[in-house]
Write a structure and sequence with these properties.
The chain is about 0% helix and about 65% strand. It has no helices and 6 strands. A hairpin with a 4-residue loop joins β2 and β3. It is globular and about 35 Å long. It starts with a strand and ends with a strand.
Amino acid sequence: NPELNIDIAIEQMGNLNVSIYNLTGQHVHTVYNQIASANQVYNLNWDASNVSSGVYIVKVQAPNTQYSKIVNLLK
């Protein structure tokens, strides 16, 4: 199943950007880039059927918050 499900909620209303990068830092896909409401769970989905198996970085940028997670995509 080449899909990644991402559930995310932010504490403060503002722009939410969730993007995927490969290990060399190249942007692969933007999953979400819109204004998001506070304390609402967003169920996001990345259809990774057009990329190869490997390790990717999910980068989340929200008001006053920024973090990354490493994911391993296996097809």
